[in-house]
Amino acid sequence: MKLKKHSKFHHEVGTSAMSDIMFFLMLFFLIVSTVASPQVMQLLLPEANSANKMSKESINVTVNDLKEYSIGNRRVQFADLEGELAKEIVGLNDPTIVLRVSRELDVQSMVDVLEIGLRLRVKIVLQTSTRKE
User: Fold this and answer.
1) Among residues 110, 18, 32, 122, which one has the least CA distance to residue 69?
2) Domain segments of the chain as ranges
3) Model confidence at 45: pLDDT above 50
4) Range 47-130: architecture per CATH
């Protein structure tokens, strides 16, 4: 008498959970990509949400609406700005320049001061106002 097995074992991989995982990953990356991409044309600078504290060895440089340059409370001409900043940073450990530029000025006014900081090898931080929401 011949007995045969009528049921064969079939190898099977359960993929029902895989579609759920793929859906959640796709949803996650969709949300992250829309939040992470900046709005290219809508610029309302300079404003910031956070207020980070600076080190005590900082020098304040201000450029007002009339392109008048100030180091601390004293006004200087742009031609003298690099020399005056070089005098200010002597003896400071890891000096930082806090640059305050009026919102109404063009970007070139800010870049001019940034180039001076680059030549003096000093860190420059752009001071912004906090966003009011």
Assistant:
1) 110
2) 47-130
3) no
4) 2-Layer Sandwich (3.30)
pTM exceeds 0.85: no
At residue 43 the predicted structure's pLDDT band, cuts being 50, 70 and 90, is very low
* Contacts of residue 85, Cβ cutoff 8 Å, sequence gap at least 6: 59, 61, 71, 97, 116, 117, 120, 122
User: CB of 133 within 8 A of CB of 47?
Assistant: no
Structure tokens, 73: 């409370």
Beta carbons of 50 and 128 less than 8 angstroms apart: no
Widest CA span in the chain? 112
pLDDT at 49: 62
